Amino acid sequence: MNVEETRTSGRGSNSAQLRRYNERIVLQILRRAGEASKAELARAVQLTNAAIGAIIQDLIEEDLIFEAGKRHDGSRGQPATILKLAPDGAFSFGVRLDRTNLETVLMDFSGHIIDRRIHDMILPAPEQALEILKEDLESLRALLSEELRERITGIGLAQPFNLDAWLHELGLPEADFKKWNDFDLAAALEEATGLPVFGENDGTAAAVAELFYGHGRQNDDFLYLFLGPAIGGGLVLKGDVIRGLSGNAGDVAFMPVPPSGLSTAPKPKQPWDLLLTRASLVSLARHLSPENFAQLSRSDLQAAVEANDARYQEWLEDCASAVGLALRSAYALLDISLVVVDGDLRGAFPEAFQQALQKAVEQAAPEKRKSPEIVFGSFAHDAGAVGAASLPQFFNFSPRATILTGGKDKGPAGAGSSENRASFPARAARLGSHLATPDRSD
């Protein structure tokens, strides 16, 4: 990507905040462009060579970036030194938790997943899930040397905010899910591990992954959708993830759509239905095996995709039609040019769904209105876990506007209302001014 295109506006209220903001712009540029020279960074951040040189030197001393070699541009003079993010500069854990899956990953500063632990299972009671996650986190932490463990910035937690809701629509048992109502998993993980935990809605977290390491490297504005056991999403505008009042901006699952035409779909109680009833892997499982759908695994659904099962084709058309109508409503409000769609299914599914969705959107388009481009996401099933692991790095290293105002935003754990790092002195010492603390004041 052209380094000039990664410029982010915003100027600070005091020199310390402005310095931190500019440091993070440099990190963002390197994350998006892959590499850049000192001169390119100076132009992009609109700083003098001396000012950008001081920032670069600090980031090198903090082991967040490194000199990756020289580049000759064909002109006379010295070759340019190329700078890149240091993969070992920081690490983070990501925990993706949903109604049918537990996944934990370890990610480095470049976005590379070092290793993972996956459990395809109906979500157990909170105490059992916590024990599973503690074991997985410890086994992943053991992969790093003691020195590198000091560079772990935290745990990102991506989960639906209302795990005990819509269980009937999703065909799931109520007993264990009701126990999650009053259980603060973020606080429990923080107490068990001693690491800060940054929690977000799973759709928003996946949108962070796409912003950091996917289509967001070239696009500052997009709507993100993820088709998993249910459907969720997130919204990115001006290069930042929009959270909304309760952290649920972009959660398209509850948008009203016409009832499904499939004979296996549950009948709504009103003249309209919710998008999640028609657009989810649970609705696919229900159509494949109405009497036994709760027992089908993701591999069973993938097998139906690869076999091009007639029932899968029927569901695909119905799902795309529902999502297409919801997207037309979103377009009317947001006026954006890009929609990124991702999901748990791989193989032939992404291309087939993208084509069906594009057709549905264009058929529903009002006169004289263009349809945004629809592209498939970068991570498929990994999106939630990569998004979760991206949260500590997002709050610690991205140039959020709140840095310039002293970080006064409010939100759930991970919204970063405080830049006070006193609670985590060892990591703060190693990572300089970049370590954030989750806000648990809500």
UniProtKB/TrEMBL annotation:
Which stretches does the entry tag as region Disordered?
406-442
Pfam families membership: ROK
Signal sequence annotation: none
Q: What protein family does this chain belong to? A: Belongs to the ROK (NagC/XylR) family.
User: Any idea what this protein is called?
Assistant: Making large colonies protein
